[in-house]
Backbone:
């Protein structure tokens, strides 16, 4: 009797060891396959295929937690495809309990086990016409963070019921699956981030192409723009209108980021198009304002200064929509401001802008955005108008292209912290 009992124990042990070895092989295989896949959909599909085969389940799903919505979202399913993109409250059902306890849960028989019936979410069956008999639900925990659950339904046996060994196995298999899903999610987010970054860079390049290119030193107008980030909310343009006349425009969009840069792209495109046929600064602002008012987002606006330099008459024709007053450096070394301005573009529809004629002989006008005067040193002190004027005087004798580069370089190298776009356009009166 002892002999036979010993043989039976030995046989049971061998079977148990064999089962363990099989499970270890499965886990190893899962880890290898997961490591090779950084695609979230492929990872989820692989995880479900391995798990459902080993558990011998009728159906299986992976629900991930959407932190913003505070919901479970079914993002992968085998034999319950109609559950794709199904949402469930985080506190509902066995899944909710598995997340709260961070333990793999087995409901032996949802129809009979009164101890567990309160935890089962029958509404899911009612909506899908699927009859659930038994449930295994394991939380997906990676780096101490629960990212979702694996949800197995109905064992492929006559009674359709999972046993305790199934629960232990799913709990074991959930660990590599959770890590793989987390890695795939991080990879996907990185890819998406890089994609967005690339798109932002493209927007930045498009914006640069919209800025006028500086010409020979003999050309009376030059500009420079240093974005605080990849994209800019500032814009400038200048052109030779013929007959000794030169047109120019400088603008600054309120706010920062992609939204502001897109509005600037629109404003700059409108300006470039309209300025080719309209040679009145005030009329141009009126048309730009009406167009921008129709499509601008609430709370946003554009400041802009438009002008025409007549080198024959030695005068400037200027019109401003709430833009920073430009600084005019006179022949005697003193500065004057052009302070006439209407409201920024995009605030008041059908605004009537005015224009003024400014004598301009042997002078230089500096048009800039508020990023210049509001730039601060580490101590929090702003450059201000007076500080900017000092840089202008320092390099006034240099050619206009070189002059602007030196001014910007000095401002940045002096320890100032750039948080906004830096834009300067200079018009030299001959």
Residues:
């Amino acid at each position: 009797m002892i002999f036979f009992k010993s043989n039976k124990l030995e046989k049971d042990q061998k079977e148990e060891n064999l089962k363990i070895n099989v499970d270890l092989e499965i886990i190893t295989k899962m880890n290898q396959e997961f490591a090779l896949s950084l695609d979230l959909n492929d990872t989820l599909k692989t995880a479900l295929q391995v798990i459902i085969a080993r558990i011998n389940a009728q159906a299986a799903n992976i629900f991930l937690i959407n932190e913003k919505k505070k919901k479970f979202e079914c993002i992968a399913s085998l034999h319950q495809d109609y559950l794709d993109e199904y949402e469930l409250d985080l506190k509902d059902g066995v899944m909710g309990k598995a997340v709260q306890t961070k333990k793999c849960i087995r409901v032996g028989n949802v129809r009979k086990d009164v101890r567990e019936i309160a935890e089962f979410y029958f509404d899911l069956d009612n909506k899908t016409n699927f009859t659930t008999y038994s449930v295994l639900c394991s939380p997906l925990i990676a780096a101490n963070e629960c990212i979702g659950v694996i949800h197995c339904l109905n064992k492929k046996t006559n009674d359709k019921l999972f046993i305790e060994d199934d629960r232990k196995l799913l709990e074991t298999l959930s660990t590599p699956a959770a890590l793989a899903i987390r890695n795939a999610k991080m990879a996907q987010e990185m890819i998406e981030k890089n994609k967005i970054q690339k798109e932002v860079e493209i927007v930045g390049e498009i914006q640069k192409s919209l800025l006028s290119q500086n010409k020979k030193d003999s050309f009376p107008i030059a500009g420079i723009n240093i974005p605080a980030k990849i994209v800019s909310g500032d814009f400038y343009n200048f052109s030779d209108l013929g007959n000794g006349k030169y047109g120019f425009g400088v603008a600054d969009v309120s706010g920062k980021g992609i939204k502001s840069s897109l509005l600037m792209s629109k404003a700059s495109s409108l300006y470039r198009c309209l300025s080719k046929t309209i040679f009145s600064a005030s009329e141009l602002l009126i048309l730009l304002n009406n167009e921008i008012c129709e499509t601008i987002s609430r709370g946003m606006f554009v400041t802009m200064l438009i002008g025409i330099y007549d080198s024959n008459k030695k005068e400037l024709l200027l019109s401003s929509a709430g833009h920073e007053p430009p600084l005019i450096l006179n022949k005697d070394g003193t500065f004057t401001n052009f302070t006439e301005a209407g409201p920024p573009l995009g605030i008041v529809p059908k605004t009537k802008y005015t224009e003024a004629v400014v004598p301009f002989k042997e002078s230089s006008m500096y048009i800039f955005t508020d990023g210049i005067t509001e730039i601060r040193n580490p101590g929090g002190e702003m450059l201000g108008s007076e500080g900017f004027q000092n840089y202008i005087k320092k390099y006034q004798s240099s050619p206009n292209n070189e002059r602007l580069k030196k001014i910007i370089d000095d401002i940045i190298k002096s320890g100032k912290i750039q948080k906004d776009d830096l834009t300067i356009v200079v018009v030299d009166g001959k």
Residues 164-210 form the longest helix (47 residues). The domain at 12-185 is CATH 3.30.450.40 (Beta-Lactamase).
